[in-house]
């Protein structure tokens, strides 16, 4: 079942996110986050009006997805960046494919024009998932991260959405 996340889901989302930090190059961070950091992250999402979705089965959270600001300058207000994280035990089982449609729908409902995703260049699963939903590679940054004793390349993928013809410039 895919549903909007609540505060009750934060410990499970934190566990998934910290596993990604510690064991993968999907997040270019070194240290696990705290529950307070996750609470602040969730509060910020709510304040900004960006939903967080979870994949749940029998009370167990297997993944989560969200969108948020791409950059903070005013003219970027029609662009968002997406994030999808799946528990290690559930990777490769289609959870990501279930978590993607709600964030695309949420972006369209908010009149966003584009969704951007930064993906480690070696993360073939994430690249294929994004391509499945129509994302195309638009940039490849060489050796911009360093983790696990090696330099990491970052690819940017983008999905252009249909939006109003004349958006506001406020």
TrEMBL record:
Statement: the UniProt record of this protein carries the keyword Acyltransferase: yes
InterPro entries: Acyl_CoA_acyltransferase, GNAT_dom
UniProt entry keywords in alphabetical sequence: Acyltransferase, Transferase
One of the Pfam families matching this protein, by short name: Acetyltransf_4
One MF annotation (Gene Ontology) recorded for this entry: acyltransferase activity, transferring groups other than amino-acyl groups
Reaction catalysed by this enzyme: L-methionine sulfone + acetyl-CoA = N-acetyl-L-methionine sulfone + CoA + H(+); L-methionine sulfoximine + acetyl-CoA = N-acetyl-L-methionine sulfoximine + CoA + H(+)
PROSITE patterns found in the cross-reference section: GNAT
Family annotation (CDD domains): NAT_SF
Domain (N-acetyltransferase) ranges: 1-153
SUPFAM superfamilies linked to this entry: Acyl-CoA N-acyltransferases (Nat) (SSF55729)
Protein name from the UniProt record: Acetyltransferase
Organism: Flavisolibacter tropicus
């Amino acid at each position: 079942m895919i549903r909007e996340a609540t505060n009750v889901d934060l410990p499970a989302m934190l566990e998934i996110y910290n596993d990604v930090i510690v064991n993968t190059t999907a997040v270019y961070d070194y240290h696990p986050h705290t529950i307070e950091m996750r609470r602040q992250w969730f509060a910020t999402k709510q304040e900004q009006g960006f939903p967080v979705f979870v994949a749940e089965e029998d009370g167990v959270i297997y993944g989560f997805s969200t969108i948020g600001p791409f950059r903070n300058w005013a003219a970027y207000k029609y662009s968002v960046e997406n994030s999808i994280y799946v528990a290690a035990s559930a990777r490769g089982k289609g959870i990501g494919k279930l978590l993607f449609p709600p964030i695309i729908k949420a972006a369209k409902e908010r009149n966003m024009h584009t969704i951007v995703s930064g993906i480690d260049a070696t993360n073939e699963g994430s690249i294929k998932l994004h391509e499945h939903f129509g994302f195309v590679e638009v940039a490849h940054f060489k050796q911009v991260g360093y983790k696990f004793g090696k330099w990491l390349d970052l690819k940017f993928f983008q999905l252009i959405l249909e939006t109003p013809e004349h958006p506001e410039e406020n």
